[in-house]
Amino acid sequence: YFLSFYFNFLDLRTLKRHQFSQDVPDNLSTDERRALRQLSNNPNIIIKPADKGSKIVIMDRQQYLTEAYRQLNNDKYYKLITEPLQPTTQKTIRTFIETLYSKKYISAKQRDFLYGPELPRPRQFYLLPKIHKKQILGLFPLKFLPAAP
């Protein structure tokens, strides 16, 4: 299916909420579908949504990794941690939420929602290419027709 290469960028919970009907006619030709399949199977590129708009960016994998390492090695914004911060952060936030609930600032339903899952998903680092800024060699924004998913 057209979106198969894009599923890697979406949360599975989101996908479960949006079931795709098999009754919808395909809006791509056989050649377009084949081209998308070839792109999605190419190990030398990364396909990502752009940071703004509804564009898709195709980026050279090595360029993507170079940019990721450049950002992660900038100690102004990132520092290496030896263990996850989530357990401590979760405890602090839940204590605050419980205070709000005990003082009747929020309802039980709001408290339960704000608590989130007991075991949250691991955090992942990823880049969203910025196509509204000066173009960088290797970025190719693609515009899809309005009728395309």
TrEMBL record:
<protein>
    <submittedName>
        <fullName>Uncharacterized protein</fullName>
    </submittedName>
</protein>
